[in-house]
Amino acid sequence: MNSMSKCHDDHDNCRKEKDNCPTIIKCSCPSSTTIPVITTAGAAFPLTSLTVNTSGLCNPCTKLEVASNLVAPVAFTGTINFQVTKLCRGQNAPIPVGPAWTFSGVTLVSAQTFTFFVCDCDSCFDDCCVYTLTATAATTTIGTLSINNATIGAITTCAHNKCC
């Protein structure tokens, strides 16, 4: 049975679950990494990851909140893309969740927070999925950029109004 037929077969269970839908709240451990003084475009830096088990939910919907503190002790110039991906059981490669979020440091010499959120409601996976946050140099960067306390927070619940 493929994932599409599973969603349709479980449609009656979705209705029963409507009155009793659990919510899962999880947070990743904070992590830090430093983008080196000169980094070429395309260099990727995994920041943090989080596993969410949605096996007890019907048509799960997950809101992922990303936060980090960007610190440039000396002038930093360049563009960094932040992307959340997910890898669920049975998948061969991670897939992007939402768009890439871009940080452009035009001679940044300071610290600032960088936050965004994305939602993952477009799949029938009711499984364990690993969400990973990666920073990728979109341009050649010059100067050191520290990405401190990068975290992912997840709030997952049932999406009653949709079936696959």
Characterise this structure.
This is DUF4489 domain-containing protein. It comes from Clostridium chromiireducens. This protein has 164 residues and is mainly β. It has a single domain, classed as Jelly Rolls, CATH 2.60.120. 9% of the residues lie in helices and 59% in strands. It is built from 2 helices and 11 strands; from the N terminus they run H-H-E-E-E-E-E-E-E-E-E-E-E. Strands 1, 2, 5, 8 and 11 form a 5-stranded antiparallel β-sheet that branches. The protein has a 4-stranded antiparallel β-sheet with strand order 4-9-6-7, with no helix packed on it. Strand 6 and strand 7 form a beta hairpin. The longest helix has 7 residues. The radius of gyration is 18 Å and the shape is elongated. It starts with a helix and ends in a 6-residue tail after the last strand. The relative contact order is 0.37. The N terminus is likely disordered.
